[in-house]
Write a structure and sequence with these properties.
homodimer; Arc Repressor Mutant, subunit A; 2 domains; DNA-binding; about 240 residues
DNA sequence: ACCAGTCTGAAACATACGTTTGAATCTTGC
DNA sequence: GCAAGATTCAAACGTATGTTTCAGACTGGT
Protein backbone atom coordinates (compact mmCIF):
# COMPACT_ATOMS: atom_id res chain seq x y z
CA UNK A 1 0.00 0.00 0.00
CA UNK A 2 1.19 3.48 -0.76
CA UNK A 3 2.09 5.73 2.08
CA UNK A 4 -0.37 8.49 2.78
CA UNK A 5 2.06 11.36 2.83
CA UNK A 6 1.29 15.03 3.27
CA UNK A 7 0.55 16.54 -0.10
CA UNK A 8 3.16 19.02 -1.14
CA UNK A 9 2.02 20.10 -4.58
CA UNK A 10 -1.72 19.74 -4.42
CA UNK A 11 -2.36 20.97 -7.93
CA UNK A 12 -0.30 18.21 -9.48
CA UNK A 13 -1.32 14.58 -9.62
CA UNK A 14 1.42 12.39 -8.24
CA UNK A 15 1.46 8.72 -8.88
CA UNK A 16 3.94 7.83 -6.20
CA UNK A 17 3.96 8.38 -2.48
CA UNK A 18 5.42 11.54 -1.08
CA UNK A 19 6.23 12.47 2.45
CA UNK A 20 6.17 10.05 5.26
CA UNK A 21 4.57 10.47 8.63
CA UNK A 22 6.88 8.13 10.45
CA UNK A 23 9.39 5.56 9.42
CA UNK A 24 7.54 2.25 9.26
CA UNK A 25 10.63 0.14 9.78
CA UNK A 26 14.34 0.49 9.60
CA UNK A 27 14.72 1.13 5.89
CA UNK A 28 14.67 4.85 5.31
CA UNK A 29 18.20 4.94 4.10
CA UNK A 30 17.82 6.56 0.70
CA UNK A 31 15.30 9.04 1.96
CA UNK A 32 17.49 10.10 4.83
CA UNK A 33 20.59 10.32 2.73
CA UNK A 34 18.68 12.54 0.34
CA UNK A 35 17.59 14.82 3.14
CA UNK A 36 21.10 15.00 4.49
CA UNK A 37 22.64 15.82 1.13
CA UNK A 38 19.86 18.22 0.19
CA UNK A 39 20.27 20.10 3.43
CA UNK A 40 23.92 20.71 2.74
CA UNK A 41 23.45 21.74 -0.85
CA UNK A 42 20.37 23.88 -0.33
CA UNK A 43 22.02 25.64 2.57
CA UNK A 44 25.10 26.37 0.54
CA UNK A 45 23.69 27.38 -2.84
CA UNK A 46 20.06 28.17 -2.14
CA UNK A 47 17.06 26.62 -3.80
CA UNK A 48 17.37 27.92 -7.35
CA UNK A 49 21.08 27.32 -7.79
CA UNK A 50 20.80 23.78 -6.50
CA UNK A 51 20.23 20.97 -8.98
CA UNK A 52 18.64 17.71 -8.04
CA UNK A 53 21.41 15.95 -9.92
CA UNK A 54 23.93 17.43 -7.53
CA UNK A 55 21.91 16.24 -4.57
CA UNK A 56 21.48 12.70 -5.84
CA UNK A 57 25.13 12.53 -6.81
CA UNK A 58 26.15 13.57 -3.33
CA UNK A 59 23.78 11.16 -1.67
CA UNK A 60 24.56 8.30 -4.01
CA UNK A 61 20.90 7.86 -4.84
CA UNK A 62 19.20 7.65 -8.18
CA UNK A 63 17.75 10.77 -9.68
CA UNK A 64 14.23 9.37 -9.64
CA UNK A 65 14.42 8.91 -5.89
CA UNK A 66 13.77 12.55 -5.11
CA UNK A 67 10.55 12.43 -7.07
CA UNK A 68 9.56 9.13 -5.57
CA UNK A 69 10.12 10.12 -1.98
CA UNK A 70 9.28 13.81 -2.05
CA UNK A 71 7.28 14.45 -5.17
CA UNK A 72 9.88 16.74 -6.62
CA UNK A 73 12.59 19.25 -5.87
CA UNK A 74 10.22 21.61 -4.10
CA UNK A 75 8.85 18.83 -1.92
CA UNK A 76 12.35 17.85 -0.90
CA UNK A 77 13.15 21.46 -0.14
CA UNK A 78 10.11 21.87 2.06
CA UNK A 79 10.85 18.63 3.85
CA UNK A 80 14.41 19.76 4.57
CA UNK A 81 12.97 22.93 6.03
CA UNK A 82 10.44 21.10 8.15
CA UNK A 83 13.05 18.82 9.58
CA UNK A 84 15.63 21.49 10.31
CA UNK A 85 13.04 23.79 11.80
CA UNK A 86 11.91 21.05 14.12
CA UNK A 87 15.48 20.23 15.07
CA UNK A 88 16.30 23.86 15.66
CA UNK A 89 13.23 24.43 17.76
CA UNK A 90 14.03 21.75 20.27
CA UNK A 91 17.50 22.94 21.01
CA UNK A 92 16.52 26.59 20.87
CA UNK A 93 14.10 26.05 23.71
CA UNK A 94 16.44 24.52 26.20
CA UNK A 95 19.56 26.34 25.05
CA UNK A 96 18.47 29.82 25.96
CA UNK A 97 18.11 30.63 29.58
CA UNK A 98 15.15 32.94 29.65
CA UNK A 99 16.14 34.32 33.02
CA UNK A 100 19.54 35.51 31.90
CA UNK A 101 20.02 39.24 31.39
CA UNK A 102 18.68 40.36 27.99
CA UNK A 103 22.12 41.53 26.93
CA UNK A 104 23.60 38.09 27.49
CA UNK A 105 20.79 36.46 25.58
CA UNK A 106 21.35 38.81 22.67
CA UNK A 107 25.05 38.00 22.62
CA UNK A 108 24.23 34.30 22.69
CA UNK A 109 21.83 34.65 19.80
CA UNK A 110 24.39 36.52 17.72
CA UNK A 111 27.05 33.94 18.43
CA UNK A 112 24.71 31.07 17.64
CA UNK A 113 23.78 32.53 14.29
CA UNK A 114 27.36 33.21 13.33
CA UNK A 115 28.29 29.68 14.29
CA UNK A 116 26.14 28.34 11.52
CA UNK A 117 28.49 30.00 9.06
CA UNK A 118 31.64 28.37 10.27
CA UNK A 119 30.23 24.95 11.02
CA UNK A 120 27.01 24.31 9.16
CA UNK A 121 25.39 21.87 11.51
CA UNK A 122 22.14 20.21 10.73
CA UNK A 123 19.93 22.29 12.96
CA UNK A 124 21.42 25.48 11.53
CA UNK A 125 20.59 24.73 7.93
CA UNK A 126 17.31 26.52 8.14
CA UNK A 127 18.97 29.79 8.93
CA UNK A 128 21.26 29.69 5.93
CA UNK A 129 18.32 28.63 3.80
CA UNK A 130 16.24 31.47 5.11
CA UNK A 131 19.01 33.86 4.19
CA UNK A 132 19.04 32.57 0.64
CA UNK A 133 15.31 32.94 0.61
CA UNK A 134 15.78 36.62 1.36
CA UNK A 135 17.53 37.13 -1.93
CA UNK A 136 15.62 34.82 -4.22
CA UNK A 137 12.21 33.88 -2.90
CA UNK A 138 10.80 30.46 -3.68
CA UNK A 139 7.23 29.20 -3.67
CA UNK A 140 7.93 28.14 -0.11
CA UNK A 141 8.61 31.71 0.98
CA UNK A 142 5.43 32.19 2.98
CA UNK A 143 5.96 28.97 4.85
CA UNK A 144 9.55 29.81 5.60
CA UNK A 145 8.82 33.32 6.72
CA UNK A 146 6.10 32.16 9.05
CA UNK A 147 7.87 29.12 10.46
CA UNK A 148 11.50 30.18 10.46
CA UNK A 149 12.00 33.86 10.06
CA UNK A 150 9.11 35.25 12.03
CA UNK A 151 9.85 33.40 15.26
CA UNK A 152 13.45 34.53 15.20
CA UNK A 153 12.49 38.04 14.24
CA UNK A 154 9.84 38.42 16.89
CA UNK A 155 12.03 36.92 19.54
CA UNK A 156 14.61 39.54 18.65
CA UNK A 157 11.99 42.27 18.65
CA UNK A 158 10.90 41.32 22.09
CA UNK A 159 14.46 40.96 23.31
CA UNK A 160 15.65 44.28 21.94
CA UNK A 161 12.46 45.96 23.06
CA UNK A 162 13.23 44.82 26.57
CA UNK A 163 16.73 46.21 26.38
CA UNK A 164 15.79 49.63 25.07
CA UNK A 165 12.54 49.78 27.02
CA UNK A 166 10.25 50.17 24.05
CA UNK A 167 7.37 48.04 22.69
CA UNK A 168 8.45 45.24 20.33
CA UNK A 169 6.56 46.71 17.41
CA UNK A 170 7.91 50.19 17.83
CA UNK A 171 9.65 51.48 14.75
CA UNK A 172 12.88 52.14 16.60
CA UNK A 173 12.87 48.61 17.95
CA UNK A 174 12.41 47.22 14.46
CA UNK A 175 15.19 49.35 13.07
CA UNK A 176 17.53 48.09 15.76
CA UNK A 177 16.65 44.47 15.05
CA UNK A 178 17.25 45.04 11.36
CA UNK A 179 20.62 46.54 12.17
CA UNK A 180 21.60 43.52 14.24
CA UNK A 181 20.39 41.02 11.69
CA UNK A 182 22.13 42.88 8.90
CA UNK A 183 25.45 42.67 10.67
CA UNK A 184 25.08 38.91 10.92
CA UNK A 185 23.74 38.39 7.42
CA UNK A 186 26.70 40.02 5.78
CA UNK A 187 28.98 37.26 7.03
CA UNK A 188 26.63 34.54 5.96
CA UNK A 189 25.95 35.95 2.54
CA UNK A 190 29.09 37.68 1.51
CA UNK A 191 31.53 34.82 1.92
CA UNK A 192 33.21 34.77 -1.49
CA UNK A 193 33.42 38.53 -1.79
CA UNK A 194 34.50 39.16 1.75
CA UNK A 195 37.31 36.67 1.36
CA UNK A 196 38.71 38.69 -1.52
CA UNK A 197 38.41 41.99 0.23
CA UNK A 198 39.88 40.66 3.42
CA UNK A 199 42.11 37.71 2.60
CA UNK A 200 43.20 37.16 6.18
CA UNK A 201 39.61 36.44 7.16
CA UNK A 202 39.18 32.80 7.97
CA UNK A 203 36.12 31.67 9.74
CA UNK A 204 37.88 29.74 12.44
CA UNK A 205 36.19 29.31 15.76
CA UNK A 206 38.38 31.94 17.35
CA UNK A 207 37.67 34.54 14.72
CA UNK A 208 33.97 33.81 14.78
CA UNK A 209 34.01 34.50 18.48
CA UNK A 210 35.76 37.81 17.94
CA UNK A 211 33.24 38.78 15.26
CA UNK A 212 30.35 37.84 17.51
CA UNK A 213 31.81 39.90 20.30
CA UNK A 214 32.24 42.85 17.99
CA UNK A 215 28.66 42.72 16.77
CA UNK A 216 27.50 42.49 20.34
CA UNK A 217 29.60 45.46 21.43
CA UNK A 218 28.67 47.46 18.35
CA UNK A 219 24.97 46.92 18.86
CA UNK A 220 24.80 47.15 22.62
CA UNK A 221 26.60 50.46 22.67
CA UNK A 222 23.69 51.98 20.83
CA UNK A 223 21.02 49.96 22.60
CA UNK A 224 22.20 51.04 26.04
CA UNK A 225 22.16 54.64 25.03
CA UNK A 226 18.73 54.20 23.47
CA UNK A 227 17.52 52.66 26.71
CA UNK A 228 18.59 55.74 28.59
CA UNK A 229 16.84 57.99 26.10
CA UNK A 230 13.56 56.15 26.16
CA UNK A 231 13.52 55.86 29.94
CA UNK A 232 13.90 59.60 30.02
CA UNK A 233 10.65 59.63 28.05
CA UNK A 234 12.12 60.83 24.79
CA UNK A 235 10.52 59.95 21.43
CA UNK B 1 34.20 45.95 -41.67
CA UNK B 2 33.59 44.45 -38.31
CA UNK B 3 34.14 46.51 -35.23
CA UNK B 4 37.18 45.62 -33.22
CA UNK B 5 35.53 45.32 -29.86
CA UNK B 6 37.11 44.29 -26.63
CA UNK B 7 37.03 40.54 -26.39
CA UNK B 8 34.79 39.35 -23.63
CA UNK B 9 34.96 35.60 -23.88
CA UNK B 10 38.38 34.95 -25.31
CA UNK B 11 38.08 31.20 -25.31
CA UNK B 12 35.10 31.24 -27.66
CA UNK B 13 35.27 32.13 -31.32
CA UNK B 14 32.78 34.85 -32.13
CA UNK B 15 31.85 35.64 -35.67
CA UNK B 16 30.18 38.94 -34.99
CA UNK B 17 31.43 42.14 -33.43
CA UNK B 18 31.18 42.60 -29.73
CA UNK B 19 31.72 45.65 -27.66
CA UNK B 20 32.21 49.03 -29.17
CA UNK B 21 34.85 51.56 -28.37
CA UNK B 22 32.79 54.57 -29.36
CA UNK B 23 29.60 55.09 -31.28
CA UNK B 24 30.57 55.56 -34.91
CA UNK B 25 27.46 57.47 -35.81
CA UNK B 26 24.10 58.23 -34.34
CA UNK B 27 22.57 54.78 -34.59
CA UNK B 28 23.25 52.98 -31.33
CA UNK B 29 19.62 52.73 -30.44
CA UNK B 30 19.20 49.01 -30.02
CA UNK B 31 22.47 48.68 -28.19
CA UNK B 32 21.60 51.43 -25.76
CA UNK B 33 18.09 50.19 -25.19
CA UNK B 34 19.55 46.79 -24.42
CA UNK B 35 21.95 48.26 -21.87
CA UNK B 36 19.19 50.25 -20.28
CA UNK B 37 16.84 47.28 -19.99
CA UNK B 38 19.61 44.93 -18.90
CA UNK B 39 20.68 47.31 -16.17
CA UNK B 40 17.21 47.33 -14.71
CA UNK B 41 16.70 43.60 -14.89
CA UNK B 42 20.16 42.59 -13.71
CA UNK B 43 19.94 45.00 -10.82
CA UNK B 44 16.59 43.62 -9.77
CA UNK B 45 17.02 39.88 -10.20
CA UNK B 46 20.77 39.38 -10.39
CA UNK B 47 22.68 37.69 -13.17
CA UNK B 48 21.52 34.11 -12.84
CA UNK B 49 17.82 34.78 -12.40
CA UNK B 50 17.74 37.11 -15.38
CA UNK B 51 16.87 35.72 -18.80
CA UNK B 52 17.97 37.36 -22.00
CA UNK B 53 14.44 36.96 -23.29
CA UNK B 54 13.19 39.18 -20.50
CA UNK B 55 15.76 41.80 -21.39
CA UNK B 56 15.01 41.82 -25.10
CA UNK B 57 11.30 41.84 -24.42
CA UNK B 58 11.69 44.88 -22.21
CA UNK B 59 13.93 46.67 -24.66
CA UNK B 60 11.86 45.75 -27.69
CA UNK B 61 14.89 44.29 -29.42
CA UNK B 62 15.34 40.92 -31.04
CA UNK B 63 16.90 38.13 -29.06
CA UNK B 64 19.82 37.85 -31.44
CA UNK B 65 20.76 41.45 -30.76
CA UNK B 66 22.34 40.70 -27.40
CA UNK B 67 24.65 38.21 -29.02
CA UNK B 68 25.39 40.50 -31.91
CA UNK B 69 26.23 43.53 -29.81
CA UNK B 70 27.74 41.96 -26.73
CA UNK B 71 28.72 38.43 -27.63
CA UNK B 72 26.31 36.92 -25.16
CA UNK B 73 24.59 37.34 -21.82
CA UNK B 74 27.83 37.58 -19.90
CA UNK B 75 29.21 40.20 -22.24
CA UNK B 76 26.10 42.29 -21.80
CA UNK B 77 26.37 41.90 -18.05
CA UNK B 78 29.97 43.04 -18.00
CA UNK B 79 29.19 45.98 -20.25
CA UNK B 80 26.37 47.06 -17.95
CA UNK B 81 28.83 46.94 -15.10
CA UNK B 82 31.46 48.93 -16.94
CA UNK B 83 29.04 51.63 -17.85
CA UNK B 84 27.43 51.96 -14.44
CA UNK B 85 30.77 51.90 -12.69
CA UNK B 86 31.98 54.73 -14.89
CA UNK B 87 28.79 56.68 -14.31
CA UNK B 88 29.00 56.12 -10.59
CA UNK B 89 32.62 57.15 -10.43
CA UNK B 90 32.11 60.56 -11.96
CA UNK B 91 29.34 61.60 -9.64
CA UNK B 92 30.95 59.98 -6.63
CA UNK B 93 33.98 62.19 -7.06
CA UNK B 94 32.25 65.52 -7.15
CA UNK B 95 29.36 64.59 -4.91
CA UNK B 96 31.36 63.97 -1.78
CA UNK B 97 32.98 66.92 -0.18
CA UNK B 98 36.24 65.52 1.05
CA UNK B 99 36.67 68.35 3.51
CA UNK B 100 33.44 67.69 5.32
CA UNK B 101 33.64 66.06 8.74
CA UNK B 102 34.06 62.27 8.43
CA UNK B 103 30.83 61.68 10.28
CA UNK B 104 28.87 63.71 7.75
CA UNK B 105 30.51 61.87 4.88
CA UNK B 106 29.62 58.54 6.43
CA UNK B 107 26.00 59.59 6.82
CA UNK B 108 25.95 60.75 3.21
CA UNK B 109 27.35 57.44 2.01
CA UNK B 110 24.77 55.49 3.96
CA UNK B 111 21.94 57.61 2.62
CA UNK B 112 23.22 57.36 -0.94
CA UNK B 113 23.36 53.57 -0.79
CA UNK B 114 19.91 53.28 0.68
CA UNK B 115 18.56 55.59 -1.99
CA UNK B 116 19.43 53.05 -4.62
CA UNK B 117 16.87 50.75 -3.07
CA UNK B 118 13.96 53.09 -3.27
CA UNK B 119 14.76 54.67 -6.62
CA UNK B 120 17.09 52.54 -8.67
CA UNK B 121 18.81 55.16 -10.77
CA UNK B 122 21.23 54.28 -13.47
CA UNK B 123 24.43 55.09 -11.60
CA UNK B 124 23.26 53.02 -8.67
CA UNK B 125 22.76 49.82 -10.60
CA UNK B 126 26.24 48.64 -9.89
CA UNK B 127 25.65 48.60 -6.19
CA UNK B 128 22.57 46.45 -6.42
CA UNK B 129 24.36 44.19 -8.86
CA UNK B 130 27.31 43.90 -6.53
CA UNK B 131 24.97 42.88 -3.78
CA UNK B 132 23.55 40.12 -5.91
CA UNK B 133 27.07 39.08 -6.69
CA UNK B 134 27.63 38.60 -2.98
CA UNK B 135 25.09 35.86 -2.89
CA UNK B 136 25.63 34.13 -6.19
CA UNK B 137 28.99 34.85 -7.74
CA UNK B 138 29.32 34.98 -11.51
CA UNK B 139 32.37 34.61 -13.74
CA UNK B 140 32.63 38.38 -13.53
CA UNK B 141 33.11 38.28 -9.76
CA UNK B 142 36.78 39.20 -9.74
CA UNK B 143 36.22 42.14 -12.02
CA UNK B 144 33.29 43.35 -9.97
CA UNK B 145 35.09 43.01 -6.68
CA UNK B 146 38.07 44.91 -7.93
CA UNK B 147 36.25 47.63 -9.81
CA UNK B 148 33.10 48.08 -7.77
CA UNK B 149 33.30 46.60 -4.34
CA UNK B 150 36.88 47.27 -3.41
CA UNK B 151 36.81 51.04 -4.03
CA UNK B 152 33.69 51.40 -1.92
CA UNK B 153 35.04 49.09 0.74
CA UNK B 154 38.41 50.81 0.98
CA UNK B 155 36.86 54.23 1.00
CA UNK B 156 34.78 53.10 3.93
CA UNK B 157 37.80 51.57 5.63
CA UNK B 158 39.67 54.82 5.34
CA UNK B 159 36.67 56.84 6.44
CA UNK B 160 35.87 54.73 9.46
CA UNK B 161 39.55 54.46 10.31
CA UNK B 162 39.68 58.23 10.45
CA UNK B 163 36.67 58.34 12.75
CA UNK B 164 37.90 55.77 15.23
CA UNK B 165 41.53 56.78 14.88
CA UNK B 166 42.83 53.41 13.74
CA UNK B 167 44.60 52.26 10.57
CA UNK B 168 42.25 51.31 7.70
CA UNK B 169 43.41 47.71 7.70
CA UNK B 170 43.07 47.21 11.42
CA UNK B 171 40.78 44.35 12.29
CA UNK B 172 38.54 46.53 14.37
CA UNK B 173 38.17 48.98 11.51
CA UNK B 174 37.21 46.18 9.16
CA UNK B 175 34.68 44.79 11.59
CA UNK B 176 33.06 48.19 11.89
CA UNK B 177 32.86 48.58 8.12
CA UNK B 178 31.29 45.16 7.85
CA UNK B 179 28.76 46.15 10.47
CA UNK B 180 27.83 49.28 8.57
CA UNK B 181 27.59 47.53 5.23
CA UNK B 182 25.53 44.75 6.72
CA UNK B 183 22.98 47.18 8.03
CA UNK B 184 22.54 48.60 4.54
CA UNK B 185 22.58 45.29 2.73
CA UNK B 186 19.70 43.90 4.69
CA UNK B 187 17.37 46.50 3.22
CA UNK B 188 18.62 45.93 -0.29
CA UNK B 189 18.49 42.17 -0.12
CA UNK B 190 15.66 41.35 2.16
CA UNK B 191 12.87 43.22 0.41
CA UNK B 192 10.26 40.49 -0.01
CA UNK B 193 10.84 38.98 3.41
CA UNK B 194 11.03 42.24 5.29
CA UNK B 195 7.75 43.34 3.77
CA UNK B 196 6.05 40.31 5.28
CA UNK B 197 7.62 40.73 8.67
CA UNK B 198 6.93 44.44 8.75
CA UNK B 199 3.95 45.18 6.54
CA UNK B 200 3.93 48.88 7.32
CA UNK B 201 7.37 49.23 5.81
CA UNK B 202 7.21 51.10 2.55
CA UNK B 203 10.35 52.43 1.06
CA UNK B 204 9.12 55.95 0.55
CA UNK B 205 11.62 58.77 0.52
CA UNK B 206 10.65 59.82 4.01
CA UNK B 207 11.09 56.36 5.45
CA UNK B 208 14.39 55.84 3.66
CA UNK B 209 15.64 59.00 5.31
CA UNK B 210 14.58 57.75 8.71
CA UNK B 211 16.31 54.43 8.11
CA UNK B 212 19.46 56.15 6.94
CA UNK B 213 19.42 58.33 10.03
CA UNK B 214 18.97 55.31 12.23
CA UNK B 215 21.88 53.43 10.69
CA UNK B 216 24.02 56.52 11.08
CA UNK B 217 23.07 56.95 14.72
CA UNK B 218 23.41 53.26 15.44
CA UNK B 219 26.88 53.10 13.94
CA UNK B 220 28.27 56.40 15.09
CA UNK B 221 27.34 55.73 18.68
CA UNK B 222 29.80 52.88 18.67
CA UNK B 223 32.38 54.59 16.49
CA UNK B 224 32.59 57.64 18.74
CA UNK B 225 33.11 55.47 21.76
CA UNK B 226 35.69 53.43 19.90
CA UNK B 227 37.47 56.64 18.98
CA UNK B 228 37.76 57.56 22.62
CA UNK B 229 39.10 54.13 23.47
CA UNK B 230 41.73 54.06 20.78
CA UNK B 231 42.88 57.60 21.50
CA UNK B 232 43.39 56.47 25.06
CA UNK B 233 45.74 53.94 23.57
CA UNK B 234 43.64 50.88 24.24
CA UNK B 235 43.92 47.81 22.00
C1' DA C 1 21.20 53.73 -58.41
C1' DC C 2 23.96 50.66 -56.66
C1' DC C 3 26.45 47.99 -53.29
C1' DA C 4 29.49 46.79 -49.35
C1' DG C 5 28.80 46.71 -44.76
C1' DT C 6 25.81 47.12 -40.71
C1' DC C 7 22.03 45.72 -38.32
C1' DT C 8 17.53 43.15 -37.44
C1' DG C 9 14.29 39.24 -37.52
C1' DA C 10 12.18 34.55 -37.05
C1' DA C 11 13.45 30.21 -36.51
C1' DA C 12 16.28 26.58 -35.23
C1' DC C 13 19.97 24.51 -32.27
C1' DA C 14 22.34 22.60 -28.19
C1' DT C 15 22.25 21.98 -23.55
C1' DA C 16 20.80 21.59 -18.78
C1' DC C 17 17.22 21.11 -15.89
C1' DG C 18 13.15 18.85 -13.36
C1' DT C 19 10.33 15.26 -14.19
C1' DT C 20 8.37 10.87 -15.77
C1' DT C 21 8.40 6.14 -17.29
C1' DG C 22 8.50 1.22 -17.02
C1' DA C 23 11.13 -2.56 -16.06
C1' DA C 24 14.19 -4.68 -12.59
C1' DT C 25 15.33 -5.52 -7.88
C1' DC C 26 14.60 -5.80 -3.14
C1' DT C 27 11.38 -6.50 1.26
C1' DT C 28 7.91 -8.17 3.71
C1' DG C 29 3.95 -10.88 5.35
C1' DC C 30 1.97 -15.15 5.03
C1' DG D 1 8.83 -19.95 -1.07
C1' DC D 2 6.14 -16.84 -3.04
C1' DA D 3 3.52 -13.16 -4.40
C1' DA D 4 2.38 -8.26 -3.69
C1' DG D 5 4.00 -4.12 -2.71
C1' DA D 6 7.95 -0.94 -1.99
C1' DT D 7 12.03 0.76 -3.79
C1' DT D 8 15.72 1.49 -7.19
C1' DC D 9 17.56 2.13 -11.74
C1' DA D 10 18.74 3.73 -16.56
C1' DA D 11 16.69 5.97 -20.00
C1' DA D 12 13.78 9.12 -22.03
C1' DC D 13 10.65 13.27 -22.07
C1' DG D 14 9.22 18.16 -22.06
C1' DT D 15 10.59 22.60 -21.29
C1' DA D 16 13.36 26.74 -20.67
C1' DT D 17 17.55 28.76 -21.49
C1' DG D 18 21.65 30.84 -24.04
C1' DT D 19 23.27 30.71 -28.46
C1' DT D 20 23.57 30.43 -33.49
C1' DT D 21 22.04 30.68 -38.14
C1' DC D 22 21.03 32.98 -42.30
C1' DA D 23 18.02 35.57 -45.00
C1' DG D 24 16.45 40.02 -45.36
C1' DA D 25 16.18 45.16 -44.30
C1' DC D 26 18.53 49.17 -43.70
C1' DT D 27 22.34 52.79 -44.37
C1' DG D 28 25.81 55.65 -46.20
C1' DG D 29 29.29 56.55 -49.61
C1' DT D 30 30.18 57.06 -54.52
Amino acid sequence: MFQTGVSVAPSKRIRRPIGRVSEPRAAASTRERLLEAAGHVFAEHGYHATTVREIVKRSGANIAAVNYHFGGKLGLYIEVLRQSVRAARVNAIDALDQNAPPEDILRAVIRARLQSVAQPNLPDWHFRIMVHELVQPTPALSRIVNEVTRPIYERLLELVGRIIDLPPKNEKTRLCVNSIMGQILVYILAGPVLMRLWPELEMKQEQVDRIAKHIGDFSLTYLRQAAVSSRRGEK
